[in-house]
Amino acid sequence: MLNLVREHQPISRADLARRMNIGRGMVTAIIDELLEEGDVYEGATVDAPRGRKPKMLYVRTHDRLVIAIDVRFSRTYIMLSDFAGTAIALETFETVTAPDALVAQLAQRIQRLLRSHGASGRCEGIGLVVPGMVDQTTGRVLNAPQLGWKDVAIRDVLAKATGLPVHVENAPLACALAQMWLGARGGEVPGDFAYVTVSDGVGVGIVMNGQVVRGSGNTAGEFGHVPLDIDGPMCLCGSRGCLEAYTSNLATLSRYLGHEISATELREVLHETGLTINDVIARARSGDAKASAALDATAKYLGLGLSVVINALNPSVLFVGGEITEAWDRLEPTIRQQISSRALTRLAANTPIIPEPATSYPRLRGATALVAAPVFAAPQVA
After folding, report:
1. What pTM was estimated for this model as a whole?
2. Which positions ≥6 away from 371 have C-beta within 8 Å?
3. Domains in the chain, ordered, with CATH?
4. pLDDT, tens digit, for every residue of 207-223?
5. Buried/exposed 47-68: b ≥16 CB within 10 Å, e otherwise
């Protein structure tokens, strides 16, 4: 019932009874519980063709707050939002890769955000997304190559430092959760889809039968480390020729700079120059041949990677998120050409691909979903 209110708000009790095919008395009893628990609230009455004017129901989100954190290779983003994913405040800083130092900085910034902007509601938790594999049972980051982390227990340390419950998740899986649980019409999202994140790294969040797929060891969806060429460029995971080493923002920037550089060198170059993937996109649009060539190569390899995802998973739809989507009009023809030439069936070749603009902050919305989704009876994840 709570999900129906969320998906169709504003909605009346009578409409809920019709949609659920149950009696109005039962609807009233359940809604009274949800009202008492503060999960829904009543809005204004509306006109009705006959009988009593109904009071419309809404999910209570505006005064229930979440701290959403997106840790990346280059920068970390912190957003204070409500349960609907609406941003209240946002800040960013250069990522500190030492876990203890990062936790200390996060705790300080979280406290300042809540002092400055948290008066409108109560913060109910922290959602933290990382570019790596996470054990949901322990909250440990098993392996995050971009950060140089292995078996890092950040959840409990951050919870102790802030006094708030912390939920940690792999970034692509969090983006998939956001698609399911923070959309205006969550029920319209297909039960099987893949969410491909293209940022400082590349990963895939897989949803099958309405459930997020993790795999037996929490490593499902690591398509970014599918090898394209064993003698290819070095990946942050330590291997050569991974898809990520050809298609991530870092790969595109390295290509634009004209040579393969190490992660440490790249971090220094980005710090000194301030160069971003958005700069490369802007330069390509203004006629910079080097920038255009870098993006064209990214499109070719990304199309190859997406064809692997399509052939392996056969999803109903692919969502693609990341800064690279700002150049989707340039990339899409090459991406589609690669998929068409490699897809195993005509239907697979025509798999819908929906780019999600980086300005919607899909990873931060995913972090918000980690806290908000369980309230809406999120499915048991595999």
Report:
1. 0.86
2. 66, 83, 124, 125, 126, 127, 165, 167
3. 2-59 (1.10.10.10), 64-179+363-376 (3.30.420.40), 184-360 (3.30.420.40)
4. 998 888 988 888 899 99
5. eeeeeeebebbebbbeebbbbb
